[in-house]
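Translate sequence into structure tokens.
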Amino acid sequence: MTLTSRSLSKGSSKNENPVWITGAEALMDSLKIHGVKLIFGYPGGAILPIYDAVHKAEQEGWLKHYMVRHEQGGSHAADGYARSTGEVGVCFGTSGPGATNLVTGIATAQMDSVPLVVVTGQVPRPAIGTDAFQETDIFGITLPIVKHSWVIRDPSDIAKVVSEAFFIASSGRPGPVLIDIPKDVGQEFFNYQRVLPGEIIPKGFKRNGDINDCDIKKAIKLIEESERPLLYVGGGAISSGAHDEIKTLANNYQIAVTTTLMGKGAFDEKDDLSVGMLGMHGTAYANFAVTECDLLIAIGARFDDRVTGKLDTFAPKAKVIHIDIDPAEVNKNRRVDVAIVSDVLKAVRKINEKFIKNKFAFQTKNWLEKIDFWKNKHPLYVPPKEGEIYPQEVLLKVRELIPEAYVTTDVGQHQMWAAQYLRNSPRKWISSAGLGTMGFGLPAAIGVKAAFPNSDVICIAGDASVLMNIQELGTLSQYGLGIKLIIINNRWQGMVRQWQESFYNERYSSSDMSCGEPDFEKLAESFGIKGYLISDRKQLMNEFQQALDYDGPALINILVRRGENCYPMVPPGKSNAQMVGYVNCED
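Result follows.
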């Protein structure tokens, strides 16, 4: 009798008798033993054997597959799942255009260090290299944007490859990996033996060594000698779950904390020591603090250009301690005085363990008072409550009405306003930072809501960005995902328009979205989703809460002041201290 995946007992491993199953069934069983319960994808010809195995897995009850409306949506949904849970996200796509549609999502995950396992179908082995129908070399196409990739030529390799894929995606600095499976490999029967998680260490994998106590001592010495220290916290702190240790470090030494766009949530922005986000659209007081500090402690951050501005003017008076798990990031953009190559959580914990209460005189008092002076003198802009709705007040209303929601964003002005005004807990801020991918927010919210069906999930989108993956409203409708899609609608490609105003003499080339913009409420309703239009302040005060409370998916289209710019802003080629548009309470 032919055995199927149903013949596999829960505890079977490679040491027990193998069973006779297809490559596709072996893939699904390998994913199951690696804890996969949710997959996002879109079927097609070359991946049909795998989707047949998906159908069986769903019938068995251990898997939920979300069919997105575009493969890019699937990759972003898996990304949102991974960022919000800390687990590896999984997405499927077929060969050819299905695989190439995944590329933007893979690159998004790679830039932001998000663990994904991407599975693509491929033409049958004999057809590879013949320019067969829907054939592309997705292995070659994605080489620069994955941590590792495989083309499965033998179904007996599947279990080993899946084990390696999850290990590589989630270890060290996380990132995406890709497994390309020819159609006939998925159809072929073979004697399958399970490979359990962590059972195989990939060849050539090198673990980070123990933390050098000498480096920890050097770092502590610099901290204790500093009078104007600043913690600069990035996405690595989120990946390692180091937020509690960072809070302890900041409190022990009374150090102000600034975060990157990726680091939002790593430190409580309501804390007196927080100075919010730094960089191109960071708070004025964060940018002044980084310019004047005498010690910069970079934790899981990579000195990105949107943070540093003109690099040789970034933290010009500071010595630098850099803690990062990836040795390639150390001294890449900024020379440092002390480098600690380690998991952020372990390194910060070691520093905290060596803290001796009362030994450290809190010489940061004057520095913190100066930062408080900057906070009071240069606060974030509070818009007037008159005339048109200002986009900033929408975000302030979101912060007031739904403070504990998971928040995803698209990319543009609305993203920066959300980063400035919202205050998020760890893993509740999900935004495309490094690649800046328009259309990311809605499908990412699908991944978050799939992971946390009983939690509030909102997507902050722009009217231009949301159109990039608007088809995913169909996914919301099909699965009844109660996401609230909030469109900050200024009828522009807002950030493009702002740059054209500021640097291109107001030549607004191809950035006006008002002509051809859909009726978003009717569009939502055509998908079976509740649509709301908010066009005046009275509605914002009264109907917004009603829309957020709606039991089901909803699109909330908020018309805002068209010409509003996102400030503060560091112009290209300028230092962080040369911001424009920031509030000065003495003016």
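Note: Confidence is low (pLDDT under 50) at residues 1-7.
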